[in-house]
Amino acid sequence: MARIKTDKNISRKEVIVSKAATLFREKGFKAASMRDLAEAVGVEAASLYNHIKSKTELLHELCFSVANRFLHKMDEVEAENISNIAKIEKLLRFHINEMIYHYEEVYVSDREWKHLADPYLSNFQNQRRIYRKRFAAVIEAGIRTKEVKKIDAPTAVLIMLHAISGIESWHRSTQKISAAELEENMVTILVGGLTNP
Amino acid sequence: MARIKTDKNISRKEVIVSKAATLFREKGFKAASMRDLAEAVGVEAASLYNHIKSKTELLHELCFSVANRFLHKMDEVEAENISNIAKIEKLLRFHINEMIYHYEEVYVSDREWKHLADPYLSNFQNQRRIYRKRFAAVIEAGIRTKEVKKIDAPTAVLIMLHAISGIESWHRSTQKISAAELEENMVTILVGGLTNP
DNA sequence: CCTACCGATCGGTAGG
DNA sequence: CCTACCGATCGGTAGG
Fold this sequence. Notes:
The structure is a homodimer of 197-residue chains.
Chain A: H1 2-27, H2 34-41, H3 55-79, H4 84-101, H5 103-111, H6 118-144, H7 153-165, H8 167-172, H9 179-194
Helix pairs in contact in A: 1-2, 1-3, 1-5, 3-4, 3-5, 3-6, 4-5, 4-6, 4-7, 4-9, 6-7
The first copy, chain A, binds a DNA duplex (16 and 16 nucleotides) through loops.
């Protein structure tokens, strides 16, 4: 009995967080109201507060769950015994797939984090900065081994990460090409832009 | 006398639009209040309405002035008698420079257009779709002449345009590399990603 | 989970 | 350009 109740609470909260992701993506964090969210969930606005503490709590749950997935993947890839180009490609494919299959959350984490309040805000910005430095370090290692062109590594990271966020437009469109084709095209262009001919 | 008064009104409005761009970029359109804007301009909130009609008017002035600049440049480049790769490079360099030197406006036009109201909203989305199709057409022409790799042209456009929006992070950062270096690095990576080896 | 409601803030107007 | 102010909407709470 108690078990069932617990499960139900958890799944209720998960529904709220998930609907919040969709809403924050569609309207932006500020423009999406708790009344909108309540309607999407199918309850009155006041009832949401039995499951969550505040609107901002929803935002930082979304932002940090996404950030943690990327940092975790980075740990994994750094530890692998493969070429630097192969590492870069693995990271790119992970980003692309995250964007395709966890679109709403990743989009919100990417574009709405500035509305976080300050213990979380600086924490998030920090994690982000660290992630990019680690990514740039992989590129720099690739430049040293001559796998990669002599370019400014932080600029390359910026290009990669933002290029992938363009999948947003693909996701919204009628999707003339498949997810697999999209992934191959992106990897071809981005890895092709880095590698020495 | 009348002349001076007219000039003063024009420049007053320009100050308001410009401060609005900065504010909308910093906080997002919804989170930036007219009271914030009034403070930045140095007047009371109510006084703003002697120069502008509404908050949304500020947004669509920003969005459309940026969109028009890009469409105008596209006209110009299409008409030139140069290779397709050279056209792509010209467009990229224009985008990069717009992002570097008109950062606030371009950023707002890129990220806040979804808060436009509906005659303007669909109009803006239309212009954007047309622009991207024309950009893709240049890439497709380049594929036909074998200047460019066989890739999906709309995907390539997505990557280019979003990659360049990454300059935002460069702009906010301590700027370890110069604008010129940034431009060369971006062109190297992006054009290198498209061209046949 | 709902009804009832609060204080704050919003975009914008009236009138001078 | 300002003072004064309005109706709407916001995130969130009390109490059941």
